Amino acid sequence: MTGDRVCPYADMPAYITGAAPQLVSITVQALGDAFFEMRRQPQTPHSISAPLNHAILQMKRAESPAQVFAFAHAIQTGPLRDGVDLNAPAPYDAAGAEPDLPQLDTDGIGKSTERDPLVSESCARARKLEVRSFPTSIIPDDAGQAMGAVASVSEPVAFSEQDEAIVGANR
């Protein structure tokens, strides 16, 4: 979430409830009672993407793609099951304690905003690629350039059909 979409989770109960089934199907992580309880508190965290974005970008620059996926998996349990705030250093510190995952600059992650150079560059690229929803998969060509995107599709057959259409249109 960026720009005017950033707000306290407590202001988004209908959105969160509606998005929960898709979130579970994509992450394969059950949502715990603490996930919903944290969002009912008067002082809930804000739904800002910058800290998580900053953490993933640190991982991409430092490690292999396989470790990025392992890292993403490690940090999703705390927020989704246990209601841990992704804006705080705690989930990133916990992920860094996992075997084979590095400890990141969690202070930088916790202070990250949309204006952070690492994050703003990523957000600008996402806007250029017209990323508007979660999940969005960018389909690259052999040179790594974006051919197109598949947005908000997590069902494998539908995703494959859209992927094939993009690849076919760019042959």
Describe it for me?
- By secondary structure, the chain is mainly alpha-helical.
- It folds into two domains: 3-128, no CATH class; 130-171, no CATH class.
- Helix content is 54%, strand content 6%.
- The protein has eight helices and two strands, in the order H-H-H-H-H-H-H-E-E-H.
- It has helices at residues 13-27, 33-40, 50-62, 65-82, 90-96, 106-111, 117-128, 156-169, and strands spanning 136-140, 146-151.
- A two-stranded antiparallel ribbon has the order 1-2.
- A hairpin with a 5-residue loop joins strand 1 and strand 2.
- The longest helix is centred in the middle third of the chain and has 18 residues, at 65-82.
- It starts with 12 loop residues before the first helix and ends with a helix.
Write a short abstract of this structure.
The chain has 171 residues and is mainly alpha-helical. It has helices spanning 13-27, 33-40, 50-62, 65-82, 90-96, 106-111, 117-128, 156-169, and strands at 136-140, 146-151. It contains eight helices and two strands; from the N terminus they run H-H-H-H-H-H-H-E-E-H.
